[in-house]
Amino acid sequence: MTPDPVLGGPIGTLTAAARERLPAEVFHYAAGGAGDEATVLRNVQHLDAFRLVPRVMRDVSVIDTSTEVVGGSLAAPLLVAPMGMQRLYDEGAEAGTARAAAELGIGFCLSLFANCSPEQVAGAAPGQVRWRQMYLTKDHRLNEELVRQAGAAGFDAIVCTVDLPVMAERFRDAGNTFQTFDNEVAQAWSPALVREPFFKELLGLWREERPEATAQQFIDHVFPHPGCGWDDLERLIGSSPLPVIVKGVLHPDDAARAVGVGAAAVVVSNHGGSQHDRSVGAIDALPAVAEAVDGAVPVYFDSGVRSGTHAAIALALGADAVLVGRPVLWGLAVHGPDGVRAMLEHMTKGLRDTMAFVGARTVSDLRKATVRSEPGPS
Ligand code: FNR
After folding, report:
1. pLDDT at site 198
2. Does 170 have pLDDT greater than 60?
3. DSSP assignment of 177-213, as one string?
4. Which annotated residues bind glyoxylate (predicted)?
5. Residue 201 near ligand 1, beta carbon < 6 Å
6. The complex's ipTM?
């Protein structure tokens, strides 16, 4: 079958198609980042600056992309990154995305700020490796309740995102009130979106014991939690029946500390540049983190992955699997869950082809491939 030129073509074509399809505010909310967006750009450019050294004559007639991650086996070392409010892109929202990934044996991570509940996602894609993302709030009861709900819905792991002490200044969002969801554009685009804060699920849980509380009181007393520290993470891990993966680590000492408090894995990520501008490029941080962790737990990677070759580079630099962010949203915007599946299929094919060129028959072969940084025009 001839690949779809949009969903199976270069990422620029897919991004342009999503941009055409989405209301401007929705596109800019997803595509944009913090500050001058230097980190959004750097993530991709620095992945582009790496080159794999081909190896020849290695019999690559059979290539096996399967791998194990926390929670089970995947057909390819790819998972969908946690991204909130997916009903902005398609009515099927997270349940549709999860199902599309599951059809390819790819994992899924559900954002705390999702439009679908953990039960809806579990129902849409039974048997899939699924992780539930959360943030640590100031309210321990709430944190433990989120973990309990994920376990009850059959999720395999918690992903605790630790790189958001404060909310970033995002210029593209200025005048765009997604933060409160009290937004005419969002309503017109997708009437199913509720006129409530984007953290409505979390707010609802917190309000169970204080029904009169306002959203502002929630922001003041619960989330975000800039005072959060390693003790809070250790407490969560200690009370969680599910393994806890720590997302948003860039410094090797932080990675070692996360392992020390019991993390089941770490995710090297700068949130796709959407929160802290002028952060190191995530790919630049990966080798030192992998070295510091030294196989004690798996190291996963996201931020800037736009192709199967990018995923292969991350694996060759020490990642055990890769989370895919914005390209999933573009696939969802262009053609719903089918668009997500086609984009992920294309990415998996790119990964498989790259494995053939570097003579890697398995994911563990790929992790030994030679990769070099060659800064300059790509
Ligand atoms: C995100 N990301 C994110 N991360 C997280 O831990 N919880 C969340 O709710 C969200 N929400 C979210 C929304 C949108 C629109 C984007 C683009 C990103 C960050 C996400 O998990 C991942 O780290 C980045 O998207 C990876 O970067 P790229 O590949 O999108 O550039």
Report:
1. 54
2. yes
3. -TTT---HHHHHH-TTS-SS-TTHHHHHHHHTT-TT-
4. 29, 135, 170, 271
5. no
6. 1.00
